[in-house]
Amino acid sequence: MKLLKSVALGSAAAIVMMSGAQAADLPGAEPVEYVKVCDAYGAGFFYIPGTDTCLQIGGLVRFELTGVADRHGDDDDASRTGFRTRTRLWFDARTDTEYGALRTFVRMQFQKDSGSPGSLGQTTGLDGDDFLFDQAYVQFAGLTAGVTDSFWDFKPYPTFAIPFVSDRTLPALAYTAKFGDVSASVSLEDKTYRYRESANAQPNAGQTMPDIVANLRVKQGWGEAQLSGVASRINPMKNFADPITGERGGDNGWGWGVQAGFKLNLPTANTSDAKGDFLWAQAAYTDGVGLSYNGVGDQNFGSGRTQNIANFNLQRDYLLIGGETEKTRAFSANLGVLHYWSPKWRSALHATYIDVDYRRVDADWRTGALIGNLIWTPVKKLDIGAELSYINNMKKSQVAYKGTSDDDAFVGRLRVQRDF
User: Which residues pair with 110 in a beta bridge?
Assistant: First the structure.
């Protein structure tokens, strides 16, 4: 037995030695380099092999089914449903330098909408400002260059529906200075991305200059707050007839706007993953810079080709009247709260309001809405939720509605979303 055991061990040793010698003779053999975790920028980052750059990859898949029941006039009831499927995939690459982190961020988006009488069946979002990629920018030493969130926006709203608050990604060149928990930014932003549709762009002789946006922001343990301002150059085309007034001409000028908002973290014992209850409030006043700065046209309560009844109101940044440019004034306000009933259940309640003033034309309108939802998270990063919105046109644009009675609508939405 001992002799047999010795022979077996000797044979095994010989095979190992021969295999090692043959492996050593293989040309081009290199040591395996395993992916290493990068903890310098938070969870989910890893080093790209062979570099000192950290990369995070993430994304989501979202499905929505939306139903709308609205009333146009006393007896004209309408209802419709729509579907939307959206997917996002993002890449966040960061490298430490002597000037701080060098960051490149790309977020790709694909979307398909279908449903709604009168539509062309289905769309893939090819005509949107966020198809294929809705963000792609570089950040270095305070500089931000590329397609990113507008530096005007302050949007930690807790609902599926976008309330009357700006929610835009657009080309921008910005600089941000940080002083501890406080930051100050100034940005040159592409104003053509603020037009809701081509009809709103026609009175402008191209983009003579980008919008000038600035903000002051603070973020601490209690929450965050932001003050934003914008100045926009108005340049009507001299040979263009205003579709509302029929007049031509109009003087050049400047539009402006200001916005303030805060998010207050609330104490709760029902949270997980560092999430918690919060209260969010925001208000904005604009004078001629564009209604998108108040959130008009940023999808609002529609989804899957359903429509927001506020879209039937007149939506123009200014009108040409008596050879003058009459700037549109608008005020919008929001108040919302998010509460976790348990680590797996949360809900939000939100109120939103907008008042649009056209001064010398009987086209003013006001709209408000109440939004509530309930969301179940059975496992981490999976949300299944339902939301109900009630929208009311408190005052309607007589140019668009021709004196019909006030309209209101109920919008219900089901959403399933998986983040990864």
Answer: 87
The answer to the question of residue 171 being in a domain is yes
In a domain, 1, yes or no: no
Q: How far apart are CA 359 and CA 406, in angstroms?
A: 21
Cβ–Cβ contacts within 10 Å for residue 124, how many? Answer: 12
* Phi, then psi, of 221 in degrees rounded to 5: -60, -30
Give the containing element (helix H, strand E) for 212. strand 211-220
Predicted TM-score (pTM) of this structure: 0.84
- Which of left, alpha, beta for 118 (phi over 0: left; psi -120 to 50: alpha)? left
| pLDDT tens-digit series, residues 84-101 | 999 999 999 999 999 999
Which among 291, 274, 52, 285 has a CA at the least distance from the CA of 168? 291
Q: Flag whether 128 is in a domain.
A: yes
| pLDDT of 62 | 97
Q: What is the mean pLDDT of residues 342-370?
A: 93
Tell me the C-alpha distance between 287 and 219, whole Å: 28
CA-angle at 36, arms to 31 and 38, nearest 5°: 150
Could you report the per-residue pLDDT of 299-348, keeping only the tens digit for each? 677 776 676 677 778 888 888 888 788 899 999 999 999 999 999 999 99
What CATH number is given to the structural domain containing 296? Answer: 2.40.160.10
CA–CA dist 366, 283 (Å, integer): 15
SS (H, E, C) 259-275: EEEEEEECCCCCCCCCC
CA distances from 240 to 48, 54, 115, 125, 328 (A): 54, 52, 36, 30, 18
CB 57 within 8 A of CB 90: yes
Per-residue confidence (pLDDT) for residue 3, from 0 to 100: 41
CB 350 within 8 A of CB 371: yes
In this predicted model, which residue has the larger pLDDT, 354 or 1? 354
Residue 273 — pLDDT band, cuts 50, 70, 90? low
Q: Round to the nearest angstrom and report the end-to-end CA distance of the chain.
A: 58
Residue range(s) defining the domain that contains residue 343: 35-419
